[in-house]
Write a structure and sequence with these properties.
The chain contains 2 helices and 12 strands, in the order αβαβββββββββββ. It is mostly beta strands and 235 residues long. The chain has a single domain, classed as Porin (Beta Barrel), CATH 2.40.160. It has an 8-stranded antiparallel barrel. Strand 2 and strand 3 form a beta hairpin. The radius of gyration is 22 Å and the shape is elongated. The two termini are 37 Å apart.
């Protein structure tokens, strides 16, 4: 809990600025592609880099360089595909069986971001959750991967909090135009997201023997280091 205190303090202080000045409210949104590198105990268990993306929306606090917003993300850290008979009684028809290990996340964040025109550094404090799940689906072998059935094998949720930062470079200036965004920025960022302990499956954690399924469940802290490349739009 002591590690959470600085983040909560920053969020509370920022919210106290709301409405403190008469100024136009700044709104921004964006999306990014990224990679996630497991850290600490999580890195000891999962030796693969995850790939995914995220979207966000944020609103500025009038008269301050602070913004508050919500971020939603998705990352895959494991993937398996195998070909199996449709059933024991129909062995002459085969299907693709696909298993994905993934993380869905949601975070509330406070951003320190001076509203300067061309080159903008920023710093974030975040708190939210990571939802770990492993899902298996059956697909037709030759018909555009048409899905037949899907099931979630295992899932768990972890508290997630941390900090991040980045640089934004203006690609488009729309100020003065009657329509369209005020600006578009290239966004380069990184985040260190501490994760509480959670149970999850890794790639290869599902074992099948004599018609029975066994899960090799791993439990550890779930800290991630994310690197993102995206686009931010200022309205």
């Amino acid at each position: 809990m002591t590690r959470l205190t600085p983040i909560f303090c920053l969020m509370v202080i920022t919210l106290l600025f709301a409405g403190s000045a008469q100024a136009q409210i700044r709104t921004e949104g964006g999306l990014a592609l990224g990679v996630g590198v497991p850290q600490g105990e999580f890195g000891d268990q999962v030796d693969q880099i995850g790939f995914g993306g995220n979207i966000f929306g944020a609103v500025g606090m009038p008269g301050t360089p602070f913004m508050v917003g919500l971020d939603a993300g998705f990352m895959m850290y494991g993937h398996e595909r195998r070909n199996e008979p449709f059933s024991t009684t129909i062995p002459d028809i085969t299907v693709d069986v696909v298993t994905d290990n993934a993380i869905a996340s949601g975070h509330f964040f406070v951003r320190l971001s001076p509203d300067i025109p061309v080159f903008r550094p920023y710093a974030d404090a975040l708190i939210g959750f990571k939802y770990f799940f492993t899902e298996t689906r059956i697909q037709n072998e030759n018909i555009d991967d048409s899905e037949i059935a899907r099931s979630t094998n295992f899932s768990d949720t972890a508290l997630s909090y941390g900090f991040g930062g980045g640089l934004q470079f203006r690609l488009f200036n729309g100020i003065g135009r009657a329509e369209g965004p005020a600006a578009v920025y290239l966004d380069l960022g990184a985040r260190y997201l501490i994760g509480s302990e959670a149970a999850y499956l890794e790639e290869g954690s599902i074992r099948r023997e004599n018609g029975k399924v066994t899960f090799d469940v791993t439990k550890s802290e779930t800290t991630l280091l994310d690197f993102n490349l995206g686009v931010t739009v200022k309205f």
